[in-house]
Amino acid sequence: MNKKLLVLDVEGTIFQALHPIDETEYASTMWQSLAHSLGEEGCRREFELEKKWESGKYKNYLEWIGETYTWIHKDLGLKKETFNRLIFEAEYIPGVKEFFHTLDRKIYIPVLISGGFQELVVRAQKDLKIEHGHGACEYFFDSEDGYLVSLSVTPCDFEGKYEYIKVLFSNYNLNPNTDWIFVGDGKNDLDIAKRAPISIAINGHEELKKAVRFKFDDNGNSINNFFQIKKIIDALTSEDFHKISQIKSDNISSPFHEENEYLKEENERLKIENRRLKQKNNDLKGRQKKPRERKFQKKWLKEQPKRLLSVILKNTKTVFVGLKKEYEQFAFLQNIDKNLTVIPAGSENHSFKDYQNVDYLFVFKDCIGHKLAEKAINELKVPYIYLPPQRNKEILIQIMANALIAEFG
Predict the structure, then answer these.
(1) The domain containing residue 215 runs over which residues?
(2) Number of domains making up the chain
(3) What is the pLDDT at residue 246?
(4) 327-351 burial, b if ≥16 CB within 10 A, otherwise e?
(5) Same domain, 121 and 230
(6) At residue 234, does pLDDT exceed 80?
(7) Beta strands 148-153 and 132-141: pairing type?
(8) How far, CA to CA in Å, does 312 sit from each of 172, 307, 317, 331?
């Protein structure tokens, strides 16, 4: 078989994402670990900037990195010692070292491409003996006090990943339509995965899974380690590359006949789910009008002191849905007043029969679309408000107090 590029994402693909931040879209080895190293405020700011990216408030990826550097890492005092420790402690996905140790380098030329840190890419290049690697970002620290002072950044994520490897096609005289494989995990890998003749998702984001050629191994299990990836790559032939490069991603063939069967089953499942949702939508239209939703107002953050919440709750039965039990806010709210019932996210089968006389419903905004939130709104049929994704306890109860004041006076 002719030479092929084996192009791999880095963070979340060959390195594990050990410190994910709840309710975020992008699994990261370093960005989220750095946020955790800077405490609760670091995590809050990381969460806020990711939501800002998802809502389209950044012009491009460089702008997102720039604000992360300035507002989180520099402002909160990231030091070289912490940064280097996290690079050193990053753990490989199971099977990575074995995979690269046995990789046939006469056929496959490994390439690392990351929207993350060059320092992590360099570590992997040394450990795994990989010649080509590029990370979007590099940090520089003061030689005396060790604090972060500057950065170097390139557009090497989303569409930028493919731009980097285009020069390698030319250098190795390879055909970009047939002569490479891509392996990735995240939503930000969508563009390059769609371009690759053969693409593989490992611990893949749901949107990425829809675009790749391989998301299952030959036993029908979702791919989550490099032992599975080795089997897929070892089974590929020149003919497979040619055939797969000629077909569209919605009509996929593979060396494993099971892959087609799973795709057919998934397609049928989605059709059934679509019919169910249409029926559910029709049923909802036939019901009585939903209870009124009160809109959150920013002025509520300032006006009334938090002590009012306990006073108002004495005469108001209220339910709060959407926080996870492990959040410290969950226990905090549970202990405010007996008239406030806090129901954890994930309680899919929770019965609301005991709360028929409830006066008001709070739904944590990150819980929108959650079955429990929808069930609470439809079954309790009381005034409700979606709370913003606020993790500061003091601000959270001020908002709640003011919402109740606005409703009941």
Answers:
(1) 4-255
(2) 2
(3) 62
(4) bebbeebbebbebbbbbbbeeeebe
(5) yes
(6) yes
(7) antiparallel
(8) 72, 9, 9, 20
